Amino acid sequence: MNAPSTKRSMRIMISTGHLGTAPSNPESFYAGIATQPDYLVADGGSSDPGPVYLGENKNLGLFIRDELELFLTAARARNIPLIIGSAGDTGSDFGVDDTIRHMREIADQHRIPRFKIGYFYSEVSKNLLIGKLDAGARLSGLGGFSDLTREELERATRVVAVAGVDPFIRLLDMGADVIIGGRSGDVAFTAAPCIRAGYPMALAYHMGKMIECASLVAEPFMGKETIIGTITDDEILITPYHPDQRVTVAPAAAHSMYEREDPHFEHALGGLLDMRECVYEQFDDRTCRITGAKWVPDRQLRAKLEGARKVGERYMGVVGIRDPFIVRNVDAAIAWSRSAVAKRFGNMRYELHFHVFGRDAILKEREPERTGPGHEVAIVVEGLADSDVDAHRLTDFAVRMFFLARVPGSKGSSGLAATTKETMRSSPGYVWNVNHTVPVDNPMELFSVHMTEAGV
Amino acid sequence: MARLSDLAKTIRSKNAGVNQVTFDIIFPDAETYRRTLASGAITRETVARLFRIADDRISHFVTFAPANAIKFTLYRSQPSGSPGDWDILGCQQYGPLIDLEIP
To answer: Which domains does chain A have, with CATH numbers?
Structure first.
């Protein structure tokens, strides 16, 4: 067996599982970066926060600038390449452009010497996909979705494809110092430099999987702390940089199944990571050693697509109920509001949802606790309509109808609900309507790469 | 009789893609993991009953010995973040598991 010091290795550092939601903690970040890792990487986003951000071209994180400033200044000062995937939360073209704008401003502000920014876009035109459908391609549904029809595709506001390692590798080949990626797989931005350097693909993808959420792979639970993954030709090593964290065998194995429906497999554009034979061992008191992943290339390449469709403008109001009789008969009060709205707004398109906090707002029909709510409940009324004015009127009316509810048997005659707060404007409502895969001829087909410069 | 929260180290739920929520029950050691499995309290059938769903709403039910974990994945009734959904991340869906009784 070779001594570790004689093996070739590559070290990849990550300090956040979702760039910009809260700042990375600087202590472990600087402890990690001082060891001169080969790359600094960050996941800019995911589909997790829901379809509104993709639909509205909007950022979720309020600390994007803070994190980018930390990453860019530290990486450029040490000449460490910086790779960001799924820029701007959703990986839309807006997200990529907005991240580049931040980079330019930070570079000017800190007078960072000129450097190359490589970037790629992940948005896919609906016409391109319609062309594929017309040519007979099947857009297969994921996660219980049925296959995508032309009609449903046309209703999407925006569609992005999820990139694999290839656009990142291409941009590194082109000499990028910083890469801002459009929507990309969680494992891609870590796997790409490893694969480019000739390390085994299975280990490269598995390392991407293990470090994608930074310190969530380690114990005890801490977010936004630094982790460094080390790849060699026969293993990966995962090491935390917060002094109180450790990466031990069972939690590391458990992390490989985090946010995935199956603990044994992970799909990426290009193939399947098979983790069934993986072995997790303690390497030192803080580091876990992992071997045994396999990579099974796909015969037909398929890219994942994500798309959001707008449902309407949205308002929300909060109703409080304390009368025990109304609490017990809350469904009757809801039925009253619902039917009053139907009578008043029946000639327009709308959606109305009642979230009964204190009963089943979070699990809805899956809530097993059916013994009845406590002594008071809150109902959040969520109303959507095509126009802002209609959504406001609809939702406010539905809220008032609780005050005016006619529930047989009630003793109250001065208002059956506490409704003192103004009905509030919310984001427009969207649904994920594209969660499908599309056949592609090559892994670059849907992703265009570009190069620019920033700094002084 | 113990409650699941007395036996497990981690009980969590989280989105697995936009239309599924996955549940991880992770035990501190292999013995507790095996004992809980052997109790028969956590199976496809008991999960379906607890969450009041049909069996075909369970997309995966997996036991995962390397992590001393039981993992199952449910289809959502609508994709995450749709109007009407209050748990966009799926991260509070594990609630009913906490007090589950394990014989």
So the answer is: 10-122+162-301+440-454 (no CATH), 310-430 (3.30.70)
